[in-house]
Each structure stands twice: as C-alpha cells, then as structure tokens.
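Quick illustration, no need to memorize.
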Amino acid sequence: PDSAELARLLARGRYGPALRELARLLKRPGSSLPELDPGPSRRQDIEPDPRPGASRAAAPLRRALALLRKAAAVWPESPDILAFRGAVLVLARRCKQAERDLDKALRLDPSDAGAWRDRGRAHLDLGRAHQAAGEPADADYGRAIADLSESLRRDPSDAGTWRTRGGTRVTLGL
C-alpha cells in the first residue's frame, strides 16, 4: 500500500492506529471489511490475555488478523503488510504462520529491523514450546539470537530487543 502514514505508525509500534489507516486504505465501494472499534492504540493493547484459561485470540487480535488477511490479499507482495501480520501472529502465539509471513517480508525487504525482531520472537516462542514439551530447543533459541542480533545491527536503539536477546542468551547459558 502507498501510505507513508501506515509505515510511520508501524515503525512506532502504534498498531491500533495502523489498523485504522489500513482499513481506510482498503475501503472502496462494495468492500466487506471487518468492523473495527476504536481499537487498541499500543502493541500491549492487542496482546492476548495472559491469565490462565483466557483466550489467546482476543477479539481485537482476531479483528486485526481478519483485516490483515484482507490486506495481504490486496497487496500480497507488501513487506509492510506481511511484517505487520507476522507481528500480530507472534502475539497470537501462531509462530509457524508468523515465521512464514516474516520470512517473505524479509525476502522482500531485508532492511526491516522490526521484521527481524519479530521473527526472532517467533523462534523464541517456538523454543519455549519445544522445551516445555521436553524436546530440544537449542536450534530455535540459536535462530532467535541470530535474528535478534540482526535486528539490533539494523536498529541498535531498540531496548526491548536488547532485553529479549539478553534473556535468550541467559536461557542458553551464554
């Protein structure tokens, strides 16, 4: 999509306003977009509810994914849309799907530090799942560190990525 505003909002992690901008870009006569409420305005507002028994796919997250599926159908080669959908899929703990979207986004735009970060987080979540199942997770953690390091090479000011990479290294005993 041709929207500097969408790119600006995504870069700042303002996912709620980015979803509204995306909905605006997609609107045209006869369009059947999912209904969006004023919605989340920050990343943490669209994260799934962490309480035991709470649905991981909270309503705002489901609406975001529905809108991003439509956007990906309209703009299948947009690295911004693919990276955005990948980030939301990571939040939904659908890491294999997130990995596919983020892989494609990075093939289209390898300079996107956020996509590297989010793919690292997907690998980290996969590693945790494998570890909890008693399966080897070192390869997932290694890929997570590699992707998080690449993200930091491209954007060394991202404190959250430094923290995530450091925690992963501690988990591995590095």
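The first helix runs from residue 4 to 11.
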